[in-house]
Amino acid sequence: GAGVSQSPSNKVTEKGKDVELRCDPISGHTALYWYRQRLGQGLEFLIYFQGNSAPDKSGLPSDRFSAERTGESVSTLTIQRTQQEDSAVYLCASSPEGTGLRDEQYFGPGTRLTVT
Amino acid sequence: AQSVTQPDIHITVSEGASLELRCNYSYGATPYLFWYVQSPGQGLQLLLKYFSGDTLVQGIKGFEAEFKRSQSSFNLRKPSVHWSDAAEYFCAVVLYNTDKLIFGTGTRLQVFP
Fold first, then answer.
1. Which of A5, A34, A107, B78 could form an S-S bond across to B43 if both were Cys, CB 3.0 to 4.6 Å?
2. What Cα–Cα distance (Å) separates residue A85 from each residue in A20, A74, A114, B31?
3. Looking at A1-116, which runs of residues are DSSP E strands?
């Protein structure tokens, strides 16, 4: 079956512009995660959605970052007034249940964001 | 501070040689442990995971890892590396009763023929 997909695969934007990154999780997966991967660094947790529960936003680095999810489907990560330090690969993952304790997270290929 | 450490940023091995990638964690309790691989242009893929029980776990692609509580380590091993194993490898942990994967900074593996 189809895996996690993300779009666009690459995005170049000017400093100060807003960007939207999209994630389509695997059908039926209730949990969805966003991560940021800066060059030469590990993945940094951003936000987590589980069903109809309030999302865990504890990893969002600033109020310029926000994310939404429609039901148990598509999620959009929005970065407002982008800064050069926002340049990174943004990865989305989904899993069948709400915890990383038991369930493998399935990752998308990522969106490479470059802020000039 | 709670953390996951991968001390080797970059490792180079010859094809057919054995491999060990190091991972250490610093948490009060035993976390749940994972190894992921990120191949060029592809998403992360789970290699193996440890929750409890036998401390030597087998994964996909011929990889295994051993949990050593006394050393707070979860090193990844493979007896004979293939050129296709060249990738970035990430160790990750989940603390009990949380839903977050905490990743190490990764080890880039290069394989020479």
1. A107
2. 16, 26, 9, 31
3. 5-7, 10-13, 19-24, 31-37, 43-50, 65-69, 75-79, 88-95, 106-107, 111-115
Whether chain B has a CB inside 8 Å of the CB on A3: the answer is yes
Contacts of A42 in chain B (CB under 8 A): 4, 6, 90, 103-106
Cβ–Cβ < 8 Å for B9, B107: yes
Which chain A residues contact residue B32 at CB under 8 A? 100-101
Rg over CA atoms, chain B: 13
**What are the pLDDT digits (tens) for B22-48?**
999 987 677 889 999 998 877 789 999
- Tokens for B6? 């991968």
